[in-house]
Amino acid sequence: MRILFLVVCLLLASLPATAAVINVEFNFTPYFAPADPTAKQVDTIPGKAVVYLNNQVLAEQELEKRDLPVLFEEREISPAVWILASSMGSGLRKGANSIRVEFTPANPSQPYLARFTWSEVTDKETRTDDGAGRSTATNYGGTGKEERPVKGKVVFERGFTADFAVDHAWHHYPPITAVSPADKASLIALLKERATLFKPNFAAAYKLLEKQPNLTVPAMKKAKCLENAYKVGIRVKAPTLEQLETVITNAPELLLQGKAGSPLHPINRAAFKKIKGDENQMCAAMALYTLYPPRLTVVRTPTGTWEVVE
């Protein structure tokens, strides 16, 4: 029996370890079908793409007509919209999620092709040999593609698993199904408090930016991104009760936006041009639109207070 046990252990040890999924990548491209099927590039369709994560708006992107290269023998197209699950923020759930891409073309009568692809990124490389002495290596696991000829609006939706996501406590809060007048008054107070962070010496605002893993806040401080914006006259105002719109999602999150989808904190875009240097302009815009996005997601804690989901 002991010998059999040792043999089984040796066999298990010799088996390759299963690769773990550490990210999921999604690509979307609307494009004109090329007359030449071997064309090295395609033209994208102008329009607006809206990406939803778990039925909530994740991102909006205006697409212009531009050339995109067609790559490799598989005729992969560089994406017009590229989405990484690891960059989806705290709304990404540990376990089951859904992503939806809705695209509305500028010309609703123009036929086109719409391509939606997905790839799992794993923590191990997989090598393949073509039998002629050539090998390739990739850390992509499950991949797939959906493509269809369409005219007008197109929608792609897919479920995916993100066991690599952070499991936040608020993910398990009860869903919000109603917003009372008292709730709205509390939300206005929360937005006013957030707006006051944009003032000299900006320490509280920079501290809030540090919660964003994709930002290098020390470099932003050194470049005085927020100071430069304030210096040219940019200011942040909270909406009034009449201007606030709350969007119930039947989930723990509540979406805040301006009435008729207007920005929650209108910021004078033209004023950014007064900041000297393109990099300084970009830095200031990135900082402010991170602190004050067009829409803001909040949750209600078990104690009844409202918090912004960073």
TrEMBL record:
Annotated signal sequence range: 1-19
Keyword terms of this UniProt record: Signal
Domain of life: Bacteria
Region of interest: Disordered: 124-146
Name of this chain's protein: Uncharacterized protein
Source species: Trichlorobacter thiogenes
Lineage: Bacteria, Pseudomonadati, Thermodesulfobacteriota, Desulfuromonadia, Geobacterales
